[in-house]
Design a protein that fits this description.
Layout (H helix, E strand, L loop, with lengths): L5 E2 L11 E2 L1 E2 L1 H6 L7 H9 L4 E3 L7 H7 L5 E3 L1
Parallel strand pairs: 3-5
Antiparallel strand pairs: 1-2, 4-5
Amino acid sequence: TKVDGVYSADPKKDKTATKFSRITFAEALEKDLRVMDRTAFTLCMENDMPIMVFDMFVPGNLERAVRGEDIGTWVV
């Protein structure tokens, strides 16, 4: 994705948006946060597949994610 995590609102439009380091599927749905395509999101939730949302366009971020470094947001 082009964003560095999941936010309470669109950080480009709302300067008060806060980034979540970890959020549950239920919280994301309750807050109507559009993490990704609704069908894909539901499939991940139903199959207990955590999602890591991070900016893959930052050099080195993919490697950091694979290493398990604390970048982006975990949706669990």
